[in-house]
Amino acid sequence: MTKPFVSAALRARRWAVPLVMALFVATAGLPAQAQSTLPYGGLLSFSVFRGASPIGEHRFAFEQVGNQLHVRINVELQVKLGFITVFRYSHENHEVWEDGKLVAIDTKTNDDGKPFEVSARRVGTALEVQTLAGRATLPGDLMPSSYWHPDTPKHTRFLDTQRGVLLNLDFAPGGTEVVAISDGQRIPARRYDVTGDLKVTAWYAQNGGAWGKLSFPARGSEIEYVMAAGEPRVP
Length: 235
Prior knowledge:
Blueprint lengths: L15 H11 L16 E8 L2 E13 L2 E14 L2 E15 L2 E11 L2 E10 L2 E6 L2 E6 L3 E2 L12 E3 L6 E15 L5 E11 L3 E5 L6 E8 L2 E7 L8
Parallel strand pairs: 9-10
Antiparallel strand pairs: 1-2, 1-15, 2-3, 3-4, 4-5, 5-6, 6-7, 7-8, 10-11, 11-12, 12-13, 13-14, 14-15
């Protein structure tokens, strides 16, 4: 997924906040297959807002299968004007990682009625990509534009997970700020101003830590991701 246009904030239990904060910092360097716990405790969820209005969710589920890390991503967004839905977006993404490298990805997107599909496999040092528009061979070291990976700010070339094309992005580090989770608690993170083929602002824990927030302008409004504080699933 690139930049969608994520539910009302989840209610966290009182003890959940320090646990989420610990996971937020501890996930730096993942996905290393030798880790005893999954990234983000196995589950990461964001509420997505258009201005002050909630418009949907962006959810991640992580599963270890043998020596592979499987990441399943689901985005469901809709913007309403009164009782009428004026914009709808859905995105499904299944990433497979092995030895810290993306080896396969399959996505389906409905961007307000316009369909996209991406299927890519690592072949040697390349990614063989199939989309509805045709086939392409891209560099095998591309990071997917799904933002969850703690090393995302270190990269400049990305696979657009919606369209299956190459993205060139520059993550310029800014200051240390705090980002809110859904119950009003705050977590320290470093801001990155992203330019190039996309213009967004992303926040990650310091020293290459976990993803904590995303914001960007879209259709005259500000879209903001707020981390949902809940019960992380730990194997």
